[in-house]
Description:
Blueprint: E1 4-5, H1 7-14, E2 25-30, H2 36-43, H3 48-55, E3 67-69, E4 73-77, E5 82-86, E6 90-106, E7 112-131, E8 139-141
Antiparallel strand pairs: 1-7, 2-3, 2-6, 4-5, 5-8, 6-7
Amino acid sequence: MASVVMTKFKYESGIAGINLSADPLKVALIDNIFTTSAVSAIANTSDWGDVSATWEITGTGYTAGGAALTGCNVIENDSLTKMVFSATDVTWSSSTVNAYGATIYRISDRLPVCAIDFGGVKSSVVGNFTIQWNSNGVLNLS
């Protein structure tokens, strides 16, 4: 799997510029960007508009820009020396879509946080399309 944390997000985190548990975030579905050159390109993108123009999917029951991310929580895991970001699972009801991953971004300035690789195409046909986040968190920074 080729999930990636955005370079700009790493920088902003280092200067305390983003609060994953308080800043309004969205999650959007993306096409197959998980090739070497595309991962490098998306990792260095600092504006969601650049991501959406190139990689966001379209489909019935899916609204451009994605859905609000809720239940966001950040914890410090001292025993594993990492930060863990978690959120509530997201569902697009009655949708017909094909997506290879998702991108989380901050709404206020459209700062992309990370891209998550689904490990292949994930589809729905007039049904629920659900992103069920890993029980270990959406994002772990060590």
